Amino acid sequence: MTPGELLALIQSILEDDKAEDLVTIDLIDKTSIADHMIIATGSSSRKVASMAEHIVERLKADGQGRALAEGKQQGDWVLVDAGDVIVHLFRPEVRAFYNIEQMWGVENPALKEQATRLY
């Protein structure tokens, strides 16, 4: 599976799971750790963990069994490493606090508004 196909598959899984505020960052010329990064929000810890599990299960079913998820037990911030695509799944408050999009030079006005309300 090409990095682009993997990205499209993960985006589709997240859309089916009703992930909120989905942001995709192209990392090709920024770092060698992956080609793409996806950042998304789930409404609760349980939702975040469930979305991560769905990604891992679907990738394994499609022969991409190397995907690993860290942080599922807490469900505040789950990292799914799918090789060419890295996925960060957050609860809303945690995403607003860390604002990792800004670290990669991506503006997210909805996240700024939420952070203003929370902090």
Automatic annotation (TrEMBL):
GO molecular function: ribosomal large subunit binding
Similarity comment: family membership: Belongs to the Iojap/RsfS family.
GO biological process, alphabetically ordered: cytosolic ribosome assembly; negative regulation of ribosome biogenesis; negative regulation of translation
Name of this chain's protein: Ribosomal silencing factor RsfS
Keyword terms of this UniProt record: Cytoplasm, Repressor, Translation regulation
Keyword Lyase appears in the UniProt entry: no
Compartments reported by the entry: Cytoplasm
One Pfam family here: RsfS
Originating organism: Thalassospira alkalitolerans
HAMAP family: Iojap_RsfS
InterPro entries: Iojap/RsfS/C7orf30 (IPR004394), NT_sf (IPR043519)
